[in-house]
Amino acid sequence: MPAEAWLPLAAAELCLLFALSLGRRWERSRAAHSASWAFALACACLGAGALSYGTAFGWSSAVLRCYYLGGALLTVPWLAVGQVQLLVGARVARGVAVLSVVAGVLVLTADVHLRFDPGGGSHPVPAVASTGTAVRVTVALANTSVLVLLGGLAVSLVRQRRLGTAASRARSTGLALVAAGALVAGGGGLVSALGRAGANGVAVLVGFSLVYAGSAKAGTRVGRHAAAPLHQREAVRS
């Protein structure tokens, strides 16, 4: 297996461990955001695993679908879902979740034609010649989710300034790490399009390590109402 495939494989294993850890946290707390972030990291595991396989053994339409599903299409949107659940509550987050499911169906059913040079010891991510609506929906959903992450971080920082509690500070720090990790991992996807799977593996390793650290920090229980969404804790204070 070429060296470029090992880093994405390591990233996939790390994301799986992080997803299992967040899943156990959800079992203990039943906090909806922990379940969403666990699912996001499981999707990241799928995307990194597909990147490793495609780089090592060559790409097919099925492997490429897994790469896009687990990468831009599901991971970042479900990080955004978890953030909205943490700040506002589960009901508001359902819209993003439904959109990600619709986009996933479009990618799974899209007509995919690959264009790539099979020569060389490793196989870069191929250019997609035609996926029609699926590509546009994927790009729009991923970009919107990044904006949601950044907007949620801004809201959290404003609330932190107003509340000034240890819980609000921990939450803002955690959400900043989650947003930074999503941006780093997303940047790796752009690098992989240039044929550098190893660099993408590094970006995924670093990015989702930041996401996991942020999820742990944002979900820290500090005080009696720390497990509730932030708008509910503000109502308790008032």
How would you characterize this protein structure?
The chain is globular. The protein has helices at residues 6-29, 32-57, 61-73, 75-87, 90-109, 133-163, 166-192, 197-218, 230-237, and strands at residues 113-115, 127-130. The protein contains nine helices and two strands. The protein has a single domain, classed as Rhopdopsin 7-helix transmembrane proteins (Up-down Bundle). The protein is mainly alpha-helical and 238 residues long. Helix 2 runs antiparallel to helix 8 and helix 4 packs parallel to helix 6. It has a two-stranded antiparallel sheet with strand order 1-2. 77% of the residues lie in helices and 3% in strands.
Structure at a glance:
The chain has helices spanning 6-29, 32-57, 61-73, 75-87, 90-109, 133-163, 166-192, 197-218, 230-237; strands at residues 113-115, 127-130. The protein is mostly helical and 238 residues long.
Count of separate structural domains: 1
Query: What are the secondary-structure elements, in order, as H or E?
Result: HHHHHEEHHHH
The termini sit apart by 60 Å
| Beta-strand share of residues | under 5%
What is the tally of helical segments? Answer: 9
Low-pLDDT segments: 117-122, 222-228, 230-238
